[in-house]
Design brief:
Elements: E1 2-10, H1 15-27, E2 32-37, E3 41-43, E4 54-63, H2 67-80, E5 95-101, E6 106-108, E7 111-113, H3 122-132, H4 144-149, E8 157-158
Antiparallel strand pairs: 1-4, 1-5, 2-4, 3-4, 3-8, 6-7
InterPro entries: Hppk (IPR000550), Hppk_sf (IPR035907)
Catalytic activity: 6-hydroxymethyl-7,8-dihydropterin + ATP = (7,8-dihydropterin-6-yl)methyl diphosphate + AMP + H(+)
Pathway: Cofactor biosynthesis; tetrahydrofolate biosynthesis; 2-amino-4-hydroxy-6-hydroxymethyl-7,8-dihydropteridine diphosphate from 7,8-dihydroneopterin triphosphate: step 4/4
């Protein structure tokens, strides 16, 4: 079993319902146990900023799924919850990103673990810090708490 951290975000429709439905589906993946869920935070959009605010959270799973099977499962959940990929960083009903998969480092095609932008994103680091402040980034060799000190957290509000 491998500890995995996922980031979930939504900025279309009933954001809270989409987050909860995604969490429910993740908790019922085969050979997977939900271990922790952060509080929900509201943040402005990142990347493409002219869109509605996001609700974001991070969860910790323990799974026997491979990183590739987990990515496929996350994409199926997104599709089931009506995620449409019209534009990069555009609005979405649900977004599920793999942040960490144990200490695994993968840079292949669409699968990049650890997530390549997580150290720059307060909307990821704040909720991640709530459930895993001492987790060490396998590439940067710094804890989540240290990474969080380096970003502007002012736009991340508990929801």
């Amino acid at each position: 079993m491998t500890l995995v951290y996922l980031s979930l975000g939504s900025n279309i429709g009933n954001r809270q319902i989409y987050l909860q439905k995604a969490l429910d589906k993740l908790a019922h993946l085969p050979h997977t146990t939900m271990q922790a869920v952060s509080p929900v935070y509201e943040t402005a959009a990142w990347g493409k900023v002219d869109q509605a605010d996001f609700l974001n959270l991070v969860c910790r799973l323990e799974t026997e799924l491979s990183p590739y099977d987990l990515l496929e499962a996350c994409q199926k959940i997104e599709k089931h919850l009506n995620r449409v990929r019209h534009e990069h960083w555009g609005p979405r009903t649900i977004d599920i990103d793999i942040l960490f998969y144990g200490n695994t480092i993968i840079k292949e095609g669409t699968l990049k673990i650890p997530h390549p932008y997580l150290q720059n994103r307060a909307f990821v680091l704040v909720p991640l810090n709530d459930i895993a402040s001492e987790l060490v980034h396998p590439v940067l060799k710094e804890t989540v708490a240290v990474l969080l000190e380096k970003v502007d957290k002012s736009g991340v509000k508990i929801w």
